[in-house]
Amino acid sequence: MKKWLLSLLSLWIVNAGFAQAWAKQYDHVDECTCGLSLVGKGNKHGFVDKNGKVVVPLIYDEALTFSDGLAAVMQNNKWGYLDSTGKVIVELQYSEAMSFHNGMAVVVKAGNYGFINEKGTVVIPFEFGGARGFSADGLAPVMNAKGKWGYIDKKGKVVIPFKYGFADEFVEGVARVMEGSEMIHIDVSGKKVAEN
Predict the structure, then answer these.
(1) What are 145-159's pLDDT values in tens digits?
(2) How far, in Å, CA of 155 to CA of 134, rounded?
(3) Residues 135, 151: Cα–Cα separation, whole Å
(4) Helix and strand numbers, DSSP H then E, in the chain
């Protein structure tokens, strides 16, 4: 047993040493998601596998880590999404893009926020002044033209009215919002809940 543990520890140390060796050639290395790490050198970004082999060349001006199997990348001030093989799945066309969460991503076109699915189809039109991603509860905070935040469902239907100065994503059925000058917590029906 002792020999087995020592062998396992040695293997881990050797692998960690190799990982550090390839990582040193980059200015930054982000977490490994979908089996790939986001790397950057100078002003360019790409992705490498766990052995340091380049899977997506460092050609992008900006990039986000993989989420829901896709990574947002930017080139020439346009954002789009690619899969873990480097294939562009959603054409680079947006002025801003956020990571996918629960099957949808926030994207910005002509200054307005909307949502796309993993195929790149616009599923909620570009009609918001701000937006954050969908939570596991199926709701996303969005801002109207008057600067007030509310929540929509995945069909774009407003389920909690636009009345907050700030709204966070739901986590385990609770979200933090600003009502007037007070930060409060609400549930998915919009009712105020007591803080723990």
Answers:
(1) 999 999 999 999 999
(2) 11
(3) 11
(4) 1, 20
